[in-house]
Design brief:
Blueprint: H1 6-16, E1 21-23, H2 24-30, H3 37-46, E2 52-53, E3 65-68, H4 86-95, E4 120-124, E5 139-143, H5 144-149, H6 160-169, H7 172-186
Antiparallel strand pairs: 1-3, 2-3, 4-5
Helix pairs in contact: 1-3
């Protein structure tokens, strides 16, 4: 009998815990500590259509909590290759300045959602399930937290004019927070 992979272990664990809120550390333990347990969980949701809820789907769940409400129905799903070339990955990372395009986090910073070092992923702007392609114009860098929450959305980056209008409308404390973040990200203004 062959070795059971982490995805199958997570599948079995979820089926044994239908209707119970599961913590991320439980999923990782069920996968024998596999680092990629969250990717396997997304594969179950996105590729196999499992009705696994997260804090993005239900206000009753906190970040790092998941719920398989009912036994999934077996249905044919399109299979997508998960192969973005190393060259294309490098181009996306370089173009995006090694920065998450949703929250601005950079590798090595501590993610306030997870208290772990930020890791960047390559994500699709228009999801493959909606017809998006593996090409530079449809790819962006995302941190793990934003990548988890970005499933199947097509939000465009805001324009400079819109972004400035939002900062101008914000209160003084929020403006100072934006200024401090920009100083931290880009260093002291040269002038």
């Amino acid at each position: 009998m062959g070795k059971v992979g982490s995805k199958e272990k997570i599948r079995r664990f979820l089926l044994a815990n239908i209707g119970r809120v599961i913590e991320s550390h439980e999923l990782q333990a069920a996968a024998d500590g596999a680092v990629q347990y969250s990717r396997r969980l997304r594969e179950l949701r996105d590729e196999e259509g499992w009705p696994i809820l997260s804090h993005n789907d239900s206000v009753g769940l906190k970040p790092g909590q998941y719920l398989l409400r009912e036994k999934p129905t077996i249905k044919e799903r399109p299979h997508f290759a998960r192969s973005i070339s190393a060259k294309l990955r490098a181009e996306v990372l370089d173009r995006n300045g090694f920065t998450c395009q949703m929250c601005g986090a950079t590798p090595g910073q501590i993610d306030p959602e997870t208290n772990r070092k930020v890791r960047l992923h390559i994500g699709h702007i228009k999801d493959k399930s909606l017809g998006g392609k593996d090409e530079l114009s449809n790819l962006r860098t995302l941190c793990s937290t934003c990548n988890q929450g970005a499933k199947n959305i097509t939000a465009e980056k805001p324009s400079a004019i819109w972004l400035l209008s939002q900062v101008r409308r914000a209160g003084r404390d929020e403006q100072v927070a934006v200024y401090e973040w920009l100083q931290q990200k880009f260093g002291a203004a040269r002038g």
